[in-house]
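sry for the spam today, last one i promise. struct tokens for design, 431 residues
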């Protein structure tokens, strides 16, 4: 599933690089900043995984169905609200990003189309979380294959004008994303209906919602704050990069290309993250807190072995891979520079991802929010400005700040997981 998720972003940036460096830089900035509008979906999906995996582990299928309905209703309300909010403040966001003049029309168009697909994106994200929480992992895989396939075809057909389609450039890339995500969201609704998870009883009476919603909210709001803080920090990082005294467009394009290659390494990380959340939640639902903690460490050990081996292999081919993603020589060199720092930090990132997934399965998202928010705003952003603008006076200082912040974040997550009582956040009452 994560491989196909990687291909979606990778193909977008690869095709954008064949159009122009401005389009490639814009695609990277919009893709990253758009995540700010997916905060509620990600937050609710974290609450969904915790509530449904624990309910499923306890054998309470009726409660599972009701949390399915509650999750979808919550996401629908906030998704529609954020769509309106996004259009109201679209120009403000673009200004905050310190967007270079040459990229303004591209950024405005891309973000406008991305906002239109918000409701479908919410169905896509929440539906996948619901299915994963019950170990029905093949359906999210099929959904991701569908989205990746349609997006790839659309990028080449509409972006580059292949297969007899008109060459629409960056506009084609935007509408390709719209169509593929819409198909994924509708697919998830169909699967939930087919599996008997989205039925009449899924829409519970107000009395039940009033009792059950507090737990979903308890898990979701810290996760939402974490996503808001984390992605706003990334937007600020883009802004710091865009305002570099020299070479800002090249640095932005190199960062966009490097992030897509780096996301290849996220595949095992997210896979282990999801697994940790599901299995830890199941053990807590079965009232086995010590086994839940041991399971988190077992998953971490396997994940570190895999990621270290992959990092060593990928390190040998950085330049040809960067050249494939970014044909512009200057952008390619900056992408390699970015990757050297961020691949070196990959073991630290994996510790945060896997143990953070375990905390999500337990419902202890407040700890994850505090750690990730603190490492982003108290370490990464100040260091990025000081190192990037005052000491190195180039993008290298920003990449170094990213490395150091990930090390601090990993140490904090490991300490909390080992010494704090995060198991207490699991559901105790039958709902």
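last one done:
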């Amino acid at each position: 599933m994560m491989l196909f998720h990687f291909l979606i972003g990778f193909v977008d940036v690869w095709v954008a690089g064949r159009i122009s460096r401005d389009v490639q830089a814009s695609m990277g900035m919009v893709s990253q900043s758009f995540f700010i509008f997916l905060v509620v979906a990600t937050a609710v999906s974290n609450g969904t995984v915790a509530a449904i995996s624990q309910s499923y582990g306890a054998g309470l299928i009726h409660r599972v169905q009701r949390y399915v309905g509650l999750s979808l209703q919550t996401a629908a309300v906030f998704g529609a609200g954020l769509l309106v909010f996004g259009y109201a403040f679209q120009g403000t966001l673009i200004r905050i990003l310190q967007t270079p003049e040459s990229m303004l029309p591209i950024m405005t168009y891309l973000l406008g189309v991305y906002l239109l697909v918000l409701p479908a994106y919410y169905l896509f994200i929440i539906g996948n979380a619901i299915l994963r929480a019950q170990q029905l992992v093949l359906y999210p895989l099929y959904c991701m294959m569908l989205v990746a396939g349609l997006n790839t075809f659309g990028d080449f057909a509409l972006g580059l004008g292949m297969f007899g389609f008109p060459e629409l450039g960056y506009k084609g890339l935007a509408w390709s994303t719209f169509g593929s995500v819409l198909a994924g969201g509708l697919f998830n609704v169909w699967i939930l209906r087919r599996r008997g998870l989205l039925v009449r009883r899924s829409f519970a009476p107000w009395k039940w919602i009033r009792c059950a919603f507090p737990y979903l909210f308890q898990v979701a709001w810290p996760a939402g704050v974490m996503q808001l803080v984390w992605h706003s920090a990334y937007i600020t990082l883009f802004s710091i990069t865009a305002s570099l005294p020299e070479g800002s467009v090249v640095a932005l394009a190199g960062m966009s290309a490097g992030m897509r290659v780096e996301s290849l390494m996220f595949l095992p990380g997210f896979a282990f993250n999801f697994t940790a959340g599901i299995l830890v939640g199941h053990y807590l639902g079965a009232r086995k807190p010590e086994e839940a903690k041991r399971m988190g460490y077992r998953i971490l050990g396997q994940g570190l072995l895999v990621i270290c081996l992959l990092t060593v292999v990928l390190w040998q081919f950085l330049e040809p891979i960067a050249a494939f993603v970014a044909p512009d020589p200057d952008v390619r060199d900056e992408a390699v520079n970015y990757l050297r720092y961020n691949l070196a930090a990959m073991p630290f990132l994996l510790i945060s991802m896997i143990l953070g997934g375990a905390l999500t399965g337990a419902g202890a998202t407040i700890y994850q929010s505090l750690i990730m928010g603190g490492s982003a705003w108290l370490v990464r952003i100040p260091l990025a400005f000081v190192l990037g603008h005052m000491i190195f006076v180039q993008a290298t200082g920003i990449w170094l700040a990213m490395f150091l912040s990930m090390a601090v974040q990993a140490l904090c997550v490991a300490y909390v997981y080992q010494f704090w009582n995060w198991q207490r956040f699991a559901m105790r009452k039958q709902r």
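The CA atoms of residues 14 and 194 lie 36 Å apart. ok im logging off now
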